[in-house]
Specification:
By secondary structure, this protein is α/β, with parallel strands linked by helices. The chain is built from 15 helices and 7 strands.
């Protein structure tokens, strides 16, 4: 069993919320955990398509079977792998898109919160071009601006999938008119559009920052710190240790007081203006508010 639809992007555009809502529909099957990274990460792809199919082994009577992974939109290696292993003639794509300036800063805050970013936002932007050439990790975490060039990424899919099988949503639309957005998604996926019994999702991905950078770095740092060694001795069970780690990281967060300065914001708006206008024509949605 393989998916017949994918939510392919974009990262930090409410894909978690969309996954949460779609998964509640009785005619839609989505794995409990989103983002398998199967078509992106070499070590997972090398396990073979049978390993990916295990994500869908609990499908029962659902007719729309899918996965949500925003990296399939951004990473170029995902698309040819999809074309090789999935029946693209039967595949539908959902794109959810956010103001790229807001998305870039939200991405930065997430990377900073996770302990992978120590630079200021402005400095990180100046380093991005060189950073993302280094390796998969760097491209994953430091692609603040490049991920916002949506139209370039969407048009790559045109070589494989007809535009009629693509559905476009704006993050703002989901926020202010959730019922209509979901009904349109249900219609696109050819499932019951009258379903409305979903629970409202909490905002789990607020742009928060760490209270203690020392504690954060001690836990998430790639190096084998003394604190990590002690924790492994005290908590030998890996699953339980991960739960504790997640809880500690959550308690170490506080509300964000970081903002983009006006000059940087204007510079980013200018960089995105041309691709935004091209995107606006392509998806037939008014994006003028993104350019101011």
């Amino acid at each position: 069993m393989l998916p017949n639809f994918l939510v392919v992007g974009c990262q930090k555009c409410a894909t978690t919320s969309l996954h949460y809502y779609l998964r509640q529909h009785p005619n839609i099957y989505l794995p409990e955990g989103k983002e398998t990274k199967y078509f992106v990460m070499d070590e997972r792809y090398e396990l073979g398509i049978e390993s990916y199919e295990k994500n869908f082994e609990n499908v029962e009577s659902e007719v729309a079977i899918g996965e949500v992974d925003p990296d399939y939109m951004y990473f170029k290696n995902a698309l040819p792998r999809l074309a090789k292993d999935v029946d693209l003639s039967n595949l539908k794509l959902i794109f959810i898109l956010r103001n790229p300036v807001e998305r870039a800063f939200s991405h930065y805050l997430m990377t900073y919160r996770r302990g992978f970013e120590s630079e200021t936002f402005n400095k990180a932007l100046s380093l991005e071009e060189n950073r993302i050439q280094k390796d998969y990790f760097s491209r994953m975490h430091y692609s603040y601006v490049e991920r916002g060039y949506y139209i370039q990424q969407i048009k790559r899919f045109e070589k494989y999938i007809n535009k009629s099988k693509m559905h476009f949503i704006l993050t703002d639309e989901l926020k202010v008119n959730r019922e209509k957005v979901l009904k349109d998604c249900f219609s696109f996926l050819e499932v019951d559009t009258s379903f409305g019994g979903y629970e409202k999702k909490k905002n789990y991905h607020k742009g928060q920052i760490p209270r203690s950078e020392f504690l954060l770095n001690s836990i998430v740092n790639k190096n084998d710190s003394l604190i990590k060694k002690i924790i492994r001795i005290v908590l030998p069970n890996d699953k339980f240790r991960k739960k504790i780690r997640s809880k500690v990281l959550s308690l170490n967060e506080k509300d964000n007081n970081m903002v983009i300065d006006q000059k940087t914001k204007e510079s980013l708006i200018d960089r995105f203006k041309k691709p935004n206008n091209e995107l606006q024509d392509y998806i037939d949605k008014n994006l003028e508010h993104w350019n101011r």
